[in-house]
UniProtKB/TrEMBL annotation:
It comes from the Bacteria. The lineage of its organism: Bacteria, Pseudomonadati, Bacteroidota, Sphingobacteriia, Sphingobacteriales. InterPro entries: Lfuc_symporter_FucP, MFS, MFS_dom, MFS_trans_sf, MFS_TsgA-like. The keyword Cell inner membrane does not apply. This is L-fucose:H+ symporter permease. Residues 15-408 form the Major facilitator superfamily (MFS) profile domain. It comes from Mucilaginibacter segetis. PANTHER family: L-FUCOSE-PROTON SYMPORTER, PROTEIN TSGA. NCBIfam families: fucP (TIGR00885).
Length: 412
């Protein structure tokens, strides 16, 4: 057995690159939702707490679609799962046309929900798909690598949204025409990618979670027949993911508000800084992928979670640039959390891996719960609302810190 397992194999490269592009695509969609959050406040004249329903509509779709997407993937395979996700993504984008014509916030929420059902399907499929494209010992590295391009999508999303939707003085900056035009383009691009992917040939895959490759991954015989929810590391991963995305959803939803209210930026300028924060997240993911060669993923996760507790305390003080820089660094330390929790939660589950992926994806619903709660505080003071995500990072720290203990129990 090789001392240093390969990152992937030559025969998987084309598929890995294509699936990695999916991470980029849903990164664009999710961060555009945060731009829409602010735009709807301005154009549809809704409060911060009500605009948080944008995130509720998007992340709530994950709770609804997580299990159906997993069952679909299990029955029809990874490729058809990807095609279903891209179809729903494109269809939801095209629903922005009648939503904009009706100038209806609730109609927009329906369009976002359908679009996010596509994102939930892609996430459910893509993580185990990437994990299967090589040795399980390098699955953490592959998933973090692919998630780095999710970060790139997160950079592009708010940059596009700020320019085409929030740009001051633009002809359509105070209406919904620019939103409609932008999502027509997005829907068309996603549809074309779906057509292209339908022609990609998928090589036969030996799921590394089923055929273990090292002692770290081999479950003892008395644990082989354990039910999914008897795997403590999986259960804690699903909980940690819920709190992780809750922190993400709240932090991103009111980033532009923070820039406007605390730093007195224009919405457009705050949107560009949001894009910069996503650059920080992308750098963090590449750095995390490298550091995992030397530091156990669970230990790095716990360390980054503690750093974000500190960042949230600084941000909540509203100290001007000091606090705003702390807000930027939240995304740097947030960077590895989603893919690392996902990968750690899937380890050692064998044939239950795909089902487990569905439940962990459902945890993304946390991103729909937190923004309205933070919005209730942000209606009075947006800086103070950043105390709330500290709860989430404490849970993530405990998951990372105790993960080795779970592995010891499984290996006993």
């Amino acid at each position: 057995m090789d001392a240093k397992p390969k990152f992937t194999e030559q025969r998987y490269l084309v598929v890995l690159l294509f699936v990695t592009s999916l991470f980029f695509l849903w990164g664009v969609a999710l961060t555009l939702g945060d731009v829409l959050n602010r735009h709807f406040q301005n154009v549809l004249h809704i409060s911060k707490s009500r605009s948080g329903l944008v995130q509720f509509s998007m992340f709530g779709a994950y709770a609804v679609m997580g299990i159906p997407a997993g069952l679909f993937m299990k029955k029809f395979g990874y490729k058809k799962g990807v095609l279903l996700g891209l179809f729903l993504y494109a269809f939801g984008a095209f629903l922005f046309i009648p939503a904009a014509d009706a100038e209806s916030f609730n109609f927009f929420r329906i369009a976002l929900f359908v679009l996010a059902c596509g994102l939930a399907t892609l996430e459910t499929v893509a993580h185990p798909f990437v994990a299967s494209l090589g040795d399980q010992r390098t699955s953490d590295q592959r998933i973090n690598f692919s998630q780095s391009f999710n970060g790139l999508g997160g950079v592009i999303g708010p940059a596009i949204g700020s320019y085409f939707i929030l740009k001051a003085g633009q002809a359509h900056s105070n209406d919904l025409v620019s939103v409609k035009h932008l999502y027509i383009v997005i829907g068309s691009v996603i549809a074309l990618i779906g057509i292209a992917f339908s022609f990609v040939k998928i090589p036969s895959l030996a799921d590394p979670h089923v055929i273990a490759t090292d002692a770290y991954a081999v479950p003892p015989e008395d644990h082989v027949d354990k039910k999914l929810f008897q795997h403590k590391h999986f259960v804690f991963a699903a909980i940690a993911q819920l709190f992780n995305v809750a922190a993400q959803g709240g932090t991103w939803a009111y980033f532009i508000n923070y820039g406007h209210d605390v730093m007195h930026f224009s919405d457009e300028k705050a949107g560009y800084f949001f894009s910069l924060s996503m650059v920080m997240m992308m750098i963090g993911r590449f750095a995390g992928t490298f550091l995992m060669r030397y530091i156990a993923p669970n230990k790095l996760l716990a360390t980054f979670a503690l750093c974000n507790v500190i960042m949230c305390v600084i941000v909540a003080q509203g100290f001007g640039w000091v606090s705003f820089i702390g807000l930027l660094f939240i995304n740097f330390f947030f960077s590895i959390m989603f893919p690392t929790i996902f990968s750690l939660g899937l380890k050692n589950l064998g044939k239950q891996t795909q089902q487990a992926s569905s439940f962990i994806v459902m945890g993304v619903v946390g991103g729909g719960i937190f923004p309205p709660l933070m919005g209730l505080i942000a209606n009075h003071n947006v800086a103070t609302s950043y105390y709330l995500p500290i709860i989430c990072y404490v849970v993530i720290f405990l998951f990372g810190y105790t993960y080795k203990h779970f592995n010891k129990n499984m290996a006993a």
